[in-house]
Amino acid sequence: MFTGIVEELGEVTAVEILDDASRFRLRGPVVTQGAQHGDSIAVNGVCLTVVEHEGDEFTADVMAETLNRSSLGALTVGSRVNLERPMAVGERLGGHIVQGHVDGTGAVIERKPSENWEIVKISLPADLSRYVVEKGSITVDGISLTVVDAGPDFFTVSLIPTTLDLTTLGHKQPGDPVNLEVDVIAKYVERLLGARGEQPGAQEAGR
């Protein structure tokens, strides 16, 4: 489990294309401190398992399902990536509950810079739009963000200078893909209401 608070901006140092998977070597001096084989590290919001660790670099295998469902397949040597280690029990939950299980991908539509922040508009797959609400939480490339506006096929987020400086969203341009993970609580609520034969908002509609 992660919090969506990126610890550092890492870099892809090698990519090996396999028959039905890829092997990435990534540099991250912070997240590799004390890293061991089998540990989890979120890379652009995707929970990956450490296969090898040497110095400030680690290697992770990415299967075809993950490559097809996320933007990791577009990574090349030199790509910058958001890195985060799992949350330790007893630590503060600075962002929101993030599983590292990408639900789909979107793309940056436009950026609107302001004096002290920047508004970024991101496309949203139709099957995920029902989970995204104004002022709710969403994970973009592993970053816990608050939704400003939510449309049927897009949403916007407001980024402070720290987020722009320390994450990939400071460098993404219109057309660039991003990984999306919606709030897992919303998915559980939908499933539970469906099992009871109820539709979200049914009680309010009947009042």
Summarize the structure.
GO terms for molecular function: riboflavin synthase activity. The protein has helices spanning 64-69, 161-166, 184-195, 202-205; strands at 8-17, 21-27, 40-43, 46-54, 57-63, 80-84, 104-113, 118-123, 137-140, 143-150, 154-159, 177-182.
Describe the structure.
The chain has 207 residues and is mainly β. The protein has two domains: 8-84, Beta Barrel (Elongation Factor Tu (Ef-tu), domain 3), CATH 2.40.30; 104-193, Elongation Factor Tu (Ef-tu), domain 3 (Beta Barrel), CATH 2.40.30.20. It contains four helices and twelve strands. It has helices at residues 64-69, 161-166, 184-195, 202-205, and strands at residues 8-17, 21-27, 40-43, 46-54, 57-63, 80-84, 104-113, 118-123, 137-140, 143-150, 154-159, 177-182. The protein has a six-stranded antiparallel beta barrel. The chain has a six-stranded antiparallel beta barrel with strand order 7-8-11-10-9-12. A hairpin with a 3-residue loop joins β10 and β11. The longest helix has 12 residues, at 184-195. It catalyses: 2 6,7-dimethyl-8-(1-D-ribityl)lumazine + H(+) = 5-amino-6-(D-ribitylamino)uracil + riboflavin. Lumazine-binding repeats lie at residues 1-96, 97-193.
How would you describe the oligomerization state of the chains in this entry? single chain
Determine and state the CATH class of the largest domain: Mainly Beta
Alpha-carbon distance between the two ends: 38 Å
Q: What is the fold named in CATH at topology level of the largest domain?
A: Elongation Factor Tu (Ef-tu), domain 3
CA gyration radius, whole angstroms: 18 Å
The count of helical stretches stands at 4
